[in-house]
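Appendix B, Record 12. Input sequence as logged:
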Amino acid sequence: MSTIIEMEQKEDLKPAKKNIRDAILSKLKLQEEEERLNKSRRIEQKLFNLPEFQRAKTVMFYVSTKFEVDTLNMIKKAIKLGKRVAVPVVSKDKKQMLVSLISGEASELEYGPYTIKQPKEDHFNLIPPQDLDLIVVPGVAFDKGGMRLGRGKGYYDRFLESKHDQTATVGLAFDFQIIQNLPYGCHDRSVEQIISA
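Logged structural output:
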């Protein structure tokens, strides 16, 4: 019975989520590249000043696509600072996201599912989610309470479910990606804080 109710709730949320997702994605695509990079640098500065980042030994970043807050520079900088840096590895068949340490070499990445870069299979250095001190989380939108709206596949929601309780989570966003309230269901996961510019 509860499964039927959950499915109905999920279906009810779909149109509202799709409307928000479409509106924000079109704003992301319209943003000038120079503005995206300038804002990304400001976000990077705020992230690197966070106590949670400074004390973290192992940080998981997402590998940004061309419209998102740019993390490629952050990844290189974090490695130079001596952090162990990990990124997602998506297994489309298993509908699962794993996490692999990287060295920062561009040659170790290739386009994976959904045209998002991830480590090549012969560069996998998988670690359990419980080893992460900080997870930097992408989102199409966030709300003031930290709830996030992703691309709709549920990978990050399932992944965040498996993290250690002590692992900090931070979302990165441009100001227009933060809205008052997002519609969410029982499987949607929030982040502890959001950094924006």
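The longest strand covers residues 84-91.
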